[in-house]
Amino acid sequence: MNREANSNNTVNDGVETKPFQAEVGKILDLVVNSLYSNKEIFLRELISNGSDACDRLRYAAITEPALIKEDPELSIKISINKKARTITVADNGIGMGHDDLVENLGTIARSGTAAFVDELTGDSAKDVTLIGQFGVGFYSAFMVADKVTVTSSKAGEETAWQWKSEGSGEFTVTPVQREGRGTWIELHLRKGESEFLDPTRLRHIVTTYSDHIALPIQLDGTGSEGVETINSAAALWTRAKKNVSDDQYKEFYHHVAHSFDEPWSILHNKAEGRLEYTNLLFIPTAKPHDLFDPARKHGVKLYVKRVFITDDCQELMPAWMRFVRGLVDSEDLPLNISREMLQHNPVVTKIRTALIKRVLGELEKKADKSPEDFAAFWENFGPVLKEGIYEDSDYRERLVELLHCHSTNGDQLVRLSGYVERMKDGQDEIYYISGDNIDGLRNSPQIEGLLARGVEVLLFDDPVDEFWTGVVQEYKEKRLRSVTRGDIDLSNLDIDSDDAKEKREKRKAGTSGEIASLIGAFKLALGEEVGDVRVSTRLTDSPVCLVADEGALDIHLERLLKQQNRLDEMSKRVLEINPDNELIKSLAARAKEKPSDPTLVETAELLLDQARIIEGDAVTDPSAFSKRMTKMMAKSLANG
Ligand code: ADP
Ligand code: MG
């Protein structure tokens, strides 16, 4: 009997055949045909999964002791069958039921792997290098095996299921006789992979990658040695720092974080006294792939007296520290704590405060002692810490001290403390401009006047900059000031010689009548398109620029909100004109002489559109814009 359950799924004599999810198919293709040289990591992945499964069982058994009773000594067993060319990795952890097998081993179960698929290029040489960077978890078994059989029985269930696949396109699931709790993963090794039948080789792989696993890992090598435990089998974080090597920390990090970069920083501490806990925290070198997931989940696991409790205790770490990975093991919480009891728990709150201080302390130390190293951290995680400035007033001050910003002072990141030290005599505000990219900002007309006076301007290009600058009004009593909003008074900052100043005063007095006429003509021409037309103090070269009114939202923030549909209407901009610019000067003379000259209207429109383009805005009427442009060019050719 061959019954079609649905087009993707056939059942034949109890054997259910299912296709892999398309994304898994892509991973398998790559893994199966891969030239990846580090194939031995498959064992690390299977052991890591077995250890996770035991952690989950131990937690479930706190409330339901029957689950663990039939087989209470948790361990991972590796056995070799040379004749059959198989190795089996077995654990007596939580196990998987039918749906778990289909879901976990047939689709993409975690975001890291999903990100891996997103980055695939189709060029296998390039894609293979991604394996080491992302890890492909369970599917790495197919790097060495041409057939994988997973037999599993979930704790508390009567049934067992067998999942089988040759790694090409589909897998089968079949009910089988139950022989105990947990999961047995049998790998039938490919032709070239006989090295993994050698107990010495396997022992070496386990000590290299999995020594830190807190359960005994036993090897049944079929030889005369019998069964032996081949790892230290003690929770790594309980060891003294001096007894843990860098490589062991690194492998442990790979295991807890499911990331495969080097840790940028390792924080291993034991707190004793009123609050007793051990933390082993890692700050990654590379950006985790889910860093900007809307859920903003952190990566610190909670253990109680060596027992894994949860990786989802949101109170343990603030969202703005979600780049931290690792674990904390508490001696004060009760073992039978439920996840609900963790909410508003005073012990958790105290641990949280202590962890935040630890991490901040480490960041402050690095920022002071190794600025280059810190800059690399900041590139990855600065935007996340800035969320903290905005939303966590308790740590705002310390976070502001840690801020690193681009600036017109050079290509290096600068700190606010350094900015304040470099401030000019007479300067009493900290100036910044925000926009979409740093290079564009460096050339903004709105900062010309400041740069001409040697004043440094901070350059902000993170969307989150718009938010924290809204709550941090000042630093060391210097007001933080956007140069694209309101009036900026640069009169204290004039560094020109007296002579130059005098000349300019004279020129201004002489032309002010003309400039007033031009402003009048522009206002008339532009009407409702602008909020106002004013003489600028911030320009030195460009003829015009746009700024926001003092009371309005900053230009860049408005644009962001508009893009996110959180704002219906943009406020009107102020058009500032530069009285020292040659074009403006001639236009002003024309305005005085012949106020109704239609060229003035056209020039006003063109200059406004130009200013919009520099802001990164669209011109309001592109065809009118290009007609005006054409007309102007034709005119100038005719005259020249
Ligand atoms: P990850 O471990 O990062 O979640 P894997 O590809 O290694 O990704 O494993 C996918 C999922 O399959 C795991 O999250 C787990 O739910 C399940 N799984 C794998 N191996 C086991 C096992 N030995 N026991 C129980 N569940 C397992
Ligand atoms: Mg895994």
Molecular structure report:
The structure is a single chain. The protein has an 11-stranded mixed beta sheet. A 6-stranded mixed beta sheet has the order 18-17-20-19-22-21. A 5-stranded mixed beta sheet has the order 12-13-16-14-15, with helices on both faces. By secondary structure, it is of the alpha+beta class. It starts with a strand and ends with a helix. Strand 4 (76-81) and strand 5 form a beta hairpin. The radius of gyration is 33 Å and the shape is elongated. Adenosine-5'-diphosphate is lined by residues 45, 49-50, 53, 91, 93-94, 96, 104-105, 109-110, 137-138, 183, 258.
In short:
The protein is α+β, with helices and mostly antiparallel strands. The chain is built from 20 helices and 25 strands. It is elongated, with a radius of gyration of 33 Å.
List the helices and strands and how they pair.
Layout: E1 2-6, E2 9-12, E3 15-19, H1 22-32, H2 41-63, H3 66-69, E4 76-81, E5 86-91, H4 98-104, H5 111-119, H6 124-134, E6 145-153, E7 160-165, E8 170-176, E9 182-189, H7 199-209, E10 217-220, E11 227-229, H8 246-257, E12 263-271, E13 277-284, E14 299-304, E15 307-310, E16 325-330, H9 346-369, H10 371-391, H11 396-402, E17 405-407, E18 410-414, H12 416-422, E19 429-434, H13 438-442, H14 448-452, E20 458-460, H15 465-471, E21 474-475, E22 478-482, H16 498-526, E23 532-535, E24 544-547, H17 555-563, E25 574-577, H18 582-593, H19 598-615, H20 622-639
Parallel strand pairs: 4-10, 14-16, 19-20, 19-22, 23-25
Antiparallel strand pairs: 1-2, 2-3, 3-8, 4-5, 5-9, 6-7, 6-9, 7-8, 10-11, 12-13, 13-16, 14-15, 17-18, 17-20, 21-22, 24-25
Helix pairs in contact: 5-6, 9-10, 10-11, 10-15, 16-18, 16-19
The structure holds adenosine-5'-diphosphate and magnesium ion (MG).
Magnesium ion is lined by residues 45, 48-49, 137.
